[in-house]
Design brief:
24 helices, 467 residues, 70% helix, mainly alpha, two-stranded antiparallel ribbon
């Protein structure tokens, strides 16, 4: 086929925010875009290690697709790897594998402590033999997971410059360029990756670029090819199927999304993002108590901010304002732990604070994110939304135009554009944008759903009843 190409809170809350790690947990706002990058980064190194133009994707089955390196790292092997490292601390390979295993567990369980353990393992590997490709690739994936995208780009590019055929380095360079907003460069490198190593890592990245450029139907097709390409890891396949559910959800195809999430959970019963997606669909379909129960159970073991935010929003819909406030406080407590583990969370927290907190705080966070990634459409969107919340309509309108420049078919961006246009007095533009929201998924945010309905009503745009 041819397609065109992430302050309040008590000590007890902070301990809860760390979550319980039994070594068996499994890992993108609705879906966080940088969450997707963390997942894709690990898929790249776990398998491989150990749209301005056109990206051409040729169908391959799991039987004919070139394999990329070794099987995925098993987090259950961490105790054995730790024992091996104690017995033979000069074995660089063990430290590299341990760094990846800790990273996988961090991505799977959202435990911030594991990021530090991963870094320490890679530091030990570097101390034994500096500048090894395997260590640099692990560090690159770690940097992506921490949202340190400029550093990830440097690390991936260093390996790629020495070995242009290193597919994992290409994957890291693609991810870093996407998150930095260098979409044309990401597309060029992705085409190299597809040409050299077609398979799950390449197709899943093609899907994301297609989604960013507004072609969700092609994005879903590419993600299905990623599933067909296969993996030795049920977790990887469950992650890809979950992404399919996310795309269906963004298109307002709730039954199809539920089917994809259910499939992912059959493959990996504790898959975090699939659990969150399924809860979201349940809430849209009127099963609010089921969704809240599922998220309550999940957030007691996994400190995923997106899940806690969704739980708080659903609790607020139930009239449980005290419980919702506690959930929002927990989000801020988790964020402090994430920051202490080296994660950069300015973008995610800017959107959270704009909807749930102080507009001035949101604007400060959005501006900090913009300094690091001024070309990323989601950073542009967060800044635009924070500017509107702070009362600067003119600046908000300039920024939302940048956020829309790729044609991304995200109902959140379209709603922000509609609200900004209405505030600027441009009823025609507001109506066009809110029409896109109601035609796709007016339930993209439970916190903002009543605002979506009110804006659509003011603009004379009908909203379909929930499924």
């Amino acid at each position: 086929m041819t397609t065109t190409t992430a302050a309040a809170g008590t000590r007890a809350e902070e301990r809860r925010g760390r979550g319980h790690d039994d070594g068996n947990g499994a890992r993108t706002r609705p879906r966080s875009r940088t969450s997707r990058t963390a997942l894709l980064a690990f898929v790249a190194v776990a398998i491989g290690f150990g749209i301005g133009g056109v990206v051409t994707v040729t169908t391959h089955t799991s039987a004919t697709s070139p394999s990329i390196g070794a099987p995925a790292v098993d987090t259950e092997a961490i105790p054995q790897l730790e024992q091996t490292a104690q017995r033979n601390p000069a074995d660089i390979s063990t430290w590299q594998k341990l760094g990846l295993a800790y990273l996988h567990r961090a991505v799977a369980t959202y435990n911030p402590d594991d990021y530090d353990l991963s870094q320490r393992a890679f530091d030990r590997a570097d101390a034994l033999t500096p500048d090894q490709d395997e260590t640099l690739l692990g560090r690159g994936a770690l940097a992506l997971s921490r949202h340190q995208f400029a550093q990830a780009l440097q690390l991936g590019a260093r390996v790629s410059s020495r070995n242009p055929f290193q597919s994992d380095a290409l994957a890291i360079v693609v991810d870093a360029n996407v998150e930095l907003g260098h979409y044309d460069q990401a597309q060029r490198v992705l085409q190299d990756l597809i040409d050299r190593r077609p398979g799950l890592p390449a197709y899943s990245r093609a899907s994301y670029l297609l989604e960013l450029h507004g072609d969700n139907a092609a994005a879903l097709q590419a993600m299905r090819q990623a599933e067909i390409a296969g993996s030795t890891s049920a977790y990887d396949i469950a992650t890809v199927v979950t992404f399919q559910g996310d795309i269906e959800l963004a298109r307002g195809r709730y039954d199809a999304a539920a089917q994809r999430y259910d499939t992912a959970l059959r493959l990996q019963p504790d898959h975090v993002n699939a659990t969150v997606g399924r809860a979201r669909v349940s809430a849209v379909q009127g099963q609010l108590a089921r969704a809240v129960d599922s998220l309550t159970t999940l957030t007691q073991r996994v400190p995923l901010p997106a899940a806690v935010i969704l739980l708080g929003d659903l609790q607020a819909m139930q009239g449980r304002s005290a419980d919702a406030a506690q959930s929002y406080a927990l989000v801020r407590a988790i964020n402090r732990l994430q920051q202490s583990a080296g994660q950069v969370t300015d973008l995610e927290m800017a959107v959270f604070e704009a909807d749930h907190g102080d507009p001035a705080t949101a604007l400060d966070l959005a501006r900090r994110a913009y300094v690091e990634r001024p070309d990323n459409v989601y950073v542009d969107d967060a800044l635009a939304w924070s500017l509107l919340r702070s009362g600067d309509v003119a600046s908000a309108r300039s920024e939302i135009a940048r956020a829309e420049r790729l044609g991304t078919a995200d109902p959140m961006i379209h709603y922000h554009a509609a609200a900004i246009a209405e505030a600027a007095g441009d009823t025609s533009a507001a109506r066009a944008s809110i029409t896109k929201v109601v035609a796709s998924n007016p339930w993209f945010s439970f916190r903002l759903h009543s605002d979506v309905l009110a804006l659509a009503s003011r603009l004379g745009v009908g909203v379909p009843s929930p499924p």
